[in-house]
C-alpha cells in the first residue's frame, strides 16, 4: 500500500511535468483564438444583437461546471472502490476550479438574462439546479477540510459528490423537462448543433480552451498537494526523531 | 476612434458584455495565481527542509540520531 502510494505519484509527477508545457501552450492559443473569433469575427445575433457575445464566456463556463463535477464523481468512485491514491487529490483539486466555473456561469448568465429576459434571476429549473451545483461544490470543499484526518474528509466528500451527481442530468435536461426562460441546448443535442458555424467555432475554441485551462490547473494543484503530502511525511519523521 | 467606440458600446449591450468578460478574466487569473502561489510556497518549503535534514543529523553528533538513541 505504501509502495503504491509513493510509486504512483512519482510516475504521475514525471508525466505531469512532461505534458504541462503543452497544456499551457494549447490553453493560451485556444483562449486567444476563441476570444478573437468571439469578439471580432462572429456576427451579432439577429434577435439578441451584440449581447450574444456573452455566450462565448457563459456557455463554456456552464459546460465546465458539469464536466468538472462529473470528473469529481468519477474520481470519487475510483477512491471509494479502488482506493486509488491520486483520486482523492484529483477530486479535492478539482472542486475549487469547478466552483469558480459554476460561479462564472451563474453571474455571466445573470448579466445575459437582464437585457434578454428583463430579469437577473428566475427560480426556474435550470438556474436553480445550477445554483444547487454551486452549493454542492462548496459542500465538497468544506467536507474535504472538515476532519483532522485527511482520508476521512476525502471519503465524506466523495460520498457527497456521488449523491449530488444526480443533479448533473437534472441540469442537462432541465430545459427539456420543465418550462423555463433558458433556451434549450443548441450544441450538445440529438441531431447535431443548430447553431451557425460562425458562432459554433468560437464556442468550440473557448470550450476546449476552458477544458485545457482546467487540466493545466488540475495538474499543478495535484503536484502541489503531492509536495504537501511529502512535507507532512517529513514532519512526522521529524516528530519521530525528536 | 468611432470603430473603437462602436466596439466598446456593443450595440448598447456593453454594460452587460464587458462585465461578463471582465469577471471571467478576473476569476481565471485568480485561479492561476492562487494555484501558482501555493505550488511555489510548497516547493520552497520542501527545498528548505531537504536542505536542513542532513544538517540536523550532523549538528548534535551521533547521539542525536534516533538509531543511536534507541541503542544506548
Automatic annotation (TrEMBL), chain A:
It is found in: Cell inner membrane; Membrane. The chain crosses the membrane at residues 12-41, 61-82, 89-113, 125-144, 156-179, 199-220. GO terms for molecular function: heme binding; heme transmembrane transporter activity. GO terms for biological process: cytochrome complex assembly. Signal peptide: none annotated. Pfam families: Cytochrom_C_asm. It is a multi-pass membrane protein. InterPro entries: Cyt_c_assembly, Cyt_c_biogenesis_CcmC, Cyt_c_biogenesis_CcsA/CcmC. Its main location: membrane. Coiled coil: none annotated. Residues 9-182 form the Cytochrome c assembly protein domain. GO terms for cellular component: plasma membrane. The keyword Cell inner membrane applies. Keywords: Cell inner membrane, Cell membrane, Cytochrome c-type biogenesis, Membrane, Transmembrane, Transmembrane helix, Transport. Required for the export of heme to the periplasm for the biogenesis of c-type cytochromes. Belongs to the CcmC/CycZ/HelC family. This is Heme exporter protein C. It comes from Denitrobaculum tricleocarpae. The lineage of its organism: Bacteria, Pseudomonadati, Pseudomonadota, Alphaproteobacteria, Rhodospirillales. The gene is ccmC.
From TrEMBL, chain B:
It is a single-pass membrane protein. InterPro entries: Haem_export_protD_CcmD (IPR007078). Pfam families: CcmD. It is found in: Cell inner membrane. It comes from the Bacteria. Its main location: membrane. The chain crosses the membrane at residues 20-39. One of its GO terms (cellular component) is plasma membrane. Keywords: Cell inner membrane, Cell membrane, Cytochrome c-type biogenesis, Membrane, Transmembrane, Transmembrane helix, Transport. Residues 47-72 are annotated as: Disordered. GO terms for biological process: cytochrome complex assembly; heme transport. Belongs to the CcmD/CycX/HelD family. Required for the export of heme to the periplasm for the biogenesis of c-type cytochromes. This is Heme exporter protein D. It comes from Denitrobaculum tricleocarpae.
Amino acid at each position: 500500500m505504501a509502495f503504491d502510494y509513493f510509486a504512483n505519484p512519482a510516475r504521475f509527477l514525471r508525466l505531469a511535468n512532461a505534458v504541462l508545457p503543452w497544456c499551457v501552450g494549447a490553453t493560451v492559443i485556444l483562449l486567444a483564438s476563441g476570444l478573437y473569433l468571439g469578439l471580432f469575427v462572429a456576427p451579432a445575433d439577429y434577435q439578441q444583437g451584440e449581447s450574444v457575445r456573452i455566450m462565448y464566456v457563459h456557455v463554456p463556463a456552464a459546460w465546465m461546471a458539469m464536466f468538472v463535477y462529473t470528473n469529481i464523481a468519477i474520481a470519487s468512485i475510483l477512491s471509494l472502490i479502488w482506493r486509488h491514491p491520486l483520486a482523492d487529490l484529483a477530486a479535492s483539486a478539482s472542486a475549487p476550479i469547478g466552483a469558480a466555473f459554476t460561479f462564472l456561469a451563474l453571474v455571466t448568465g445573470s448579466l445575459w438574462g437582464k437585457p434578454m429576459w428583463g430579469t437577473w434571476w428566475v427560480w426556474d429549473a435550470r438556474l436553480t439546479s445550477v445554483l444547487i451545483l454551486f452549493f454542492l461544490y462548496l459542500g465538497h470543499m468544506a467536507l474535504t477540510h472538515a476532519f483532522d484526518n485527511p482520508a476521512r474528509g476525502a471519503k465524506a466528500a466523495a460520498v457527497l459528490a456521488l449523491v449530488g451527481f444526480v443533479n448533473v442530468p437534472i441540469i442537462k435536461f432541465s430545459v427539456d423537462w420543465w418550462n423555463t426562460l433558458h433556451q434549450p441546448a443548441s450544441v450538445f443535442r440529438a441531431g447535431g448543433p443548430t447553431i451557425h458555424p460562425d458562432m459554433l467555432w468560437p464556442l468550440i475554441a473557448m470550450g476546449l480552451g476552458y477544458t485545457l485551462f482546467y487540466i493545466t490547473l488540475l495538474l499543478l494543484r495535484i503536484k502541489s498537494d503531492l509536495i504537501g503530502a511529502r512535507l507532512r511525511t517529513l514532519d512526522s519523521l521529524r516528530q519521530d526523531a525528536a | 476612434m468611432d470603430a473603437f467606440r462602436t466596439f466598446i458600446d456593443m450595440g448598447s449591450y456593453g454594460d452587460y458584455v464587458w462585465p461578463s468578460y471582465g469577471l471571467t478574466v478576473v476569476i481565471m487569473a485568480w485561479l492561476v495565481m492562487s494555484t501558482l502561489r501555493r505550488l511555489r510556497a510548497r516547493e520552497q518549503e520542501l527545498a528548505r527542509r531537504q536542505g536542513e535534514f542532513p544538517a540536523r543529523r550532523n549538528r548534535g553528533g551521533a547521539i542525536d540520531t534516533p538509531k543511536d538513541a534507541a541503542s544506548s
